Amino acid sequence: MSAPPRVCVIGAGSSGIATAKVLLERGIPFDCFELSDRIGGNWVWGNRNGISAAYRSLHINTSRERMAFSDFPMPAHLPDFARHDQVAAYFDAYADHFGLREHITFRTGVQHVAPLPGGGFDVALSTGETRRYQAVCVANGHHWDPRWPEPAFPGADSTGIEQIHSHRYTDESQLVGKRVVVVGMGNSAVDIAVDASYHAAATYLSARRGAHIIPKYVFGRPYDQIAGSERIPGWIRWPLARLLLRSVTGRMTRYGLPAPDHKFAQAHPTMSSRVLDRLAHGAIHPKPNIARLDRSEVVFTDGSRAAADLVVYCTGYRISFPFFDAGFLDPGEDNEIRLYQRVFHPRVPGLYFIGLVQPLGAIMPIAERQSELVADHLQGGYALPDRLAMLAEIAKHRQAVAKRYVTSRRHTIQVDFDDYMRELSRERLRGAKRNAPGARAAVRAVSRTSA
């Protein structure tokens, strides 16, 4: 390529700034658009973009050493599990250190992205302007479109109990003096249940299925720093981790929680050093799934009842892209986007996705490595395989996910942090080899046949 293409980067959260930094240092021209007035996305409590979902007590679940960008460590004076404002300040420092801020257009949203027949994209902005780009990096995150229980619980439309999604939970004042039922067993659910246990009149944690809860510290060290390494494959790491977890926490049923119907690491982990303590002290009352909502009571599947003022649904998020035409990239009911190596659209050249994964670990180093792969491709140093090979890799990955993880909309974009980081490095090498003249000619020939 004689000149690098101009790139549109959507979003300036943790994934967007990682992309911007790599493009800038590679000399690839780009524009980054951010709906808010500052960077940081979900880590900005009270974000003015109106779609981010931080709450006052939010802390990272991955230790700072494992979530930091490769060339910009998090400050050593921060706690191992930093608070949301400390993480947001780290992102601000990252942007300033690498000179990213002047390349980000704030208070500007992307309203529509239209792929063009001959390649490239027309990008319509909230300002009314439309710009043309040769490539688009989608980095707007996937924790902003709340998924409510489907179908809704019987009585949900007639009860007098207030109902909110965890996306609208911001601080403890929403819980004070109320009888609160928290629905779910993920990280947001246990965080909110712990908050409620200190401020609400009564707290109930309703679980449809069991989960393995991991303490943030094991033997005095952050849990993810024990055997966390790209050099140790998952088939070795996770059996050892299961033995370790069992010795530290014991069975979940000891705390009144349902027994998990899966092995540890076969579902997205729930990290909390506090919820088991609050359960053990009776400050949180475990309950099974909701059967129905009466006027002022929640009825559970075991027949028990709880008077309630507030139900908080911690039921996850849809994957959605409002700036694409309906049907172009609709995940549908399976909540899945089919991408080569979780980055490349197999049929639309120049369309890349950064951070569209749910890792057993932190997203920031993954977004950085994905961005390096995209930059290699934009500069001509990395070649994709033919379309048939891309579709085969996507199918293989889907089969592996179905075999490894509990069937759930949450796990359609799940990856193991260390295994995926290693795979991205290997893919960069494979793509460089495919870039050899003879290999490129073979890929073009197969692609024409499969088109």
From TrEMBL:
Its EC number is 1.6.3.1. Keywords: Endoplasmic reticulum, FAD, Flavoprotein, Lipid metabolism, Membrane, Methylation, Microsome, Monooxygenase, NADP, Oxidoreductase, Phosphoprotein, Transmembrane, Transmembrane helix. GO terms for biological process: lipid metabolic process. Its cofactor is FAD. It is found in: Endoplasmic reticulum membrane; Microsome membrane. It is a single-pass membrane protein. GO terms for molecular function: flavin adenine dinucleotide binding; N,N-dimethylaniline monooxygenase activity; NAD(P)H oxidase H2O2-forming activity; NADP binding. It holds the Pfam family FMO-like. Acts as a Baeyer-Villiger monooxygenase on a broad range of substrates. Catalyzes the insertion of an oxygen atom into a carbon-carbon bond adjacent to a carbonyl, which converts ketones to esters. Active on diverse carbonyl compounds, whereas soft nucleophiles are mostly non- or poorly reactive. In contrast with other forms of FMO it is non- or poorly active on 'classical' substrates such as drugs, pesticides, and dietary components containing soft nucleophilic heteroatoms. Able to oxidize drug molecules bearing a carbonyl group on an aliphatic chain, such as nabumetone and pentoxifylline. This is Flavin-containing monooxygenase 5. It comes from Saccharopolyspora antimicrobica.
